[in-house]
User: Which sequence fits this backbone?
């Protein structure tokens, strides 16, 4: 039995509709959660929306709507996107929920009790778009390092004693070498922390759209401190003795974009340690997508709507492309042509064609039933062993969040199976040796069964269709059943339909 898993995405700002970057992390988290569940793990998958802060207040004002009405509307776009990209069971958290207000204020209070907060005045640069404070020396040509505009802010503010956490953080990174992944990101964070940490302004008092600071409602909590707390809210904080908290918190894996690594890998573990809580198990920072070679931006007008893509190409197709095209952790380019290419070659020609050619051959030439398995030759054993090795390899890849590796491993078996058909030539055996033909077809069905089960987290709809066509019972589609349950000769097979049409 595998341990529990807790996979989170960032919670998305609701100043605008979802784009491909949001869909990317969310699909990655879904693939991981589904993979863990395939192995019998209890996996909690959390996503949702970040609804407070100056940026949202401004967007609501611009729209001429009350902030709450505004966030209700935009948050729904994100929960709707979840259906379109075919998310499995998950929790969708909104920071305007009362349970979150309670958790965020409880964390604040705990920090006060632990003497981690003091009141002073903030003077410095602030980027509303990034909802982040920057020092003068961090600015590049008068803008935030992200390219966002900054404004000068002077206001009374509460501070978190982040500077005290420099050494404990460095010790923590040292003792937990895989806390920040990939390693290149880990090195970046370590050198940032070694450069010295300043206390962090954690409240704002010049606007109102946020969670009030306990006992000083003139201030609202800094949106990042509040937002990070969502990972605790979802598992019942402040009740740290509850079953969910105990089971899931030690397993927490936060998937984030590289732009928000500092908030997750520096501020968050420091806040947690300051509140007597252990940091999560891992922060994994993925890269950014450019669009046809260009930075995605609203002003350029090249933002990609994931819902339109699913309408055009299908959800499995988009999921596969995003997971396969770029190693998780690296930047990548989104090009329609590359998407079509992946659909036609990997999905239609390789996987789709494998199941279609085997199943339609069986329909026509083997009485539309699971064929008998006779003595195995070396070629049979080689391809079967490759298929049977997949679960262990996929699990290891999932443990490293190596999502494109999962696809590669599976497609190696798909390629091997296609070559096996060409070498075994069942169409010739039909005339010369039907017993051998049956064994070859049986072997192929078993390989396809392994492939379909293992690929189901990435392309759930297509995998289910393939497994239906193999007449695999619904409760025999997990990793345990791959070894505990066998195909039975004589089982009727339905008429196959292609699962991945070519574009
Ligand atoms: N609300 C904060 C996160 C709080 S988590 C406690 C936030 N929201 S966001 O909506 O602006 O961004 C969410 C995620 O989208 C980030 O992880 C960011 O990296 C990701 N992406 C934004 N543009 C992207 C691409 N072009 N490509 C890939 N991911 C991108 O930050």
Assistant:
């Amino acid at each position: 039995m595998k341990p529990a898993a807790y996979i989170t995405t960032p919670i998305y700002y609701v100043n605008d509709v979802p784009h491909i970057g949001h869909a990317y992390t969310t699909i990655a988290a879904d693939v991981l959660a589904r993979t863990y569940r395939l192995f019998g793990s209890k996996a909690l998958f959390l996503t949702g929306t970040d609804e407070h802060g100056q940026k949202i207040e401004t967007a609501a004002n611009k729209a001429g709507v009350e902030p709450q009405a505004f966030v209700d509307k935009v948050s729904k776009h994100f929960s709707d996107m979840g259906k379109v990209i075919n998310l499995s069971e998950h929790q969708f958290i909104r920071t305007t929920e009362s349970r979150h207000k309670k958790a965020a204020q409880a964390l604040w209070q705990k920090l006060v009790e632990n003497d981690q907060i003091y009141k002073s005045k903030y003077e410095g640069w602030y980027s509303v778009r990034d909802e982040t404070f920057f020092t003068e020396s961090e600015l590049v040509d008068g803008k935030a390092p992200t390219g966002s505009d900054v404004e000068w802010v002077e206001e009374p503010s509460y501070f978190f004693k982040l500077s005290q956490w420099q050494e404990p953080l460095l010790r923590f990174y040292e003792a937990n070498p895989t806390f920040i992944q990939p390693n290149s990101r880990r090195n970046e964070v370590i050198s940032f922390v070694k450069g010295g940490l300043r206390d962090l302004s954690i409240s704002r008092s010049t606007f109102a759209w946020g969670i009030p600071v306990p006992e000083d409602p003139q201030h609202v909590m800094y949106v990042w401190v509040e937002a990070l707390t969502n990972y605790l809210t979802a598992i019942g904080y402040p009740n740290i003795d509850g079953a969910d908290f105990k089971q899931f918190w030690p397993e927490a894996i936060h998937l984030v974009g590289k732009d928000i690594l500092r908030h997750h890998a520096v501020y968050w573990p420091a806040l947690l340690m300051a509140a007597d809580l252990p940091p999560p198990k891992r922060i994994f920072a993925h890269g950014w997508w450019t669009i046809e070679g260009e930075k995605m931006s609203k002003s350029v007008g090249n933002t990609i709507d994931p819902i339109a893509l699913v309408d055009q190409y299908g959800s499995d197709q988009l999921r596969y492309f995003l997971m396969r095209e770029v190693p998780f952790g690296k930047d990548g380019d989104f090009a329609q042509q590359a998407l079509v290419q992946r659909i036609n070659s990997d999905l239609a020609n390789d996987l789709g064609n494998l199941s279609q050619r085997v199943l339609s051959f069986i329909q026509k030439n083997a009485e539309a039933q699971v064929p008998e398995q006779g003595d195995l030759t070396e070629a049979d054993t080689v391809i079967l062993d490759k298929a049977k090795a997949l679960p262990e390899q996929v699990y290891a890849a999932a443990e490293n969040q190596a999502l494109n590796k999962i696809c590669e491993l599976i497609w190696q078996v798909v390629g091997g199976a296609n070559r096996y058909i060409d070498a075994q030539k069942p169409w010739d055996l039909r005339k010369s040796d039907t017993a051998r033909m049956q064994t070859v077809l049986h072997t192929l069905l078993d390989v396809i069964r392994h492939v379909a089960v293992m690929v189901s987290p990435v392309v759930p709809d297509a995998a289910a269709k393939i497994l239906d066509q193999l007449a695999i019972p619904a409760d025999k589609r997990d990793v345990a059943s791959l070894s505990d349950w066998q195909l039975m000769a004589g089982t009727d097979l339905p008429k196959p339909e292609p699962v991945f049409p070519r574009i």
Observations:
- The first helix runs from residue 20 to 38.
- Residues 10-13, 21-22, 24-25, 50, 227-228, 230, 256-257, 259-260, 288-289, 296 surround 5'-O-[(L-methionyl)-sulphamoyl]adenosine (CB under 6 Å).
- The CA atoms of residues 205 and 219 lie 5 Å apart.
- The chain is about 50% helix and 15% strand.
